[in-house]
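Pilot study result, target chain (79 residues):
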Amino acid sequence: MTALLLVVLTLVAVGGTVVALTGDPRRQAVTLSVYGLLLTVLFFVLQAPDVALSQLAVGSAVVPLMVLLSLRVVAGRRR
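Predicted structure:
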């Protein structure tokens, strides 16, 4: 394995841990977006640009926005 791949794998492992240990759902959505970017870099390093583009669109943008939208809807229903 190359040094770049080891660094990216370490960052992905740390990022996943941070997402799992974040308690506040809003902060977790932000850390999930950063984790999606880390996965995008990992897929790009592994020479899978099609998967990286999909991850960039879905994991870094769509899923965190859906989480924030659902939190907003749930908070609106509680009021």
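One observation from the pilot: The mean pLDDT is 92. A full batch analysis is planned for the follow-on phase.
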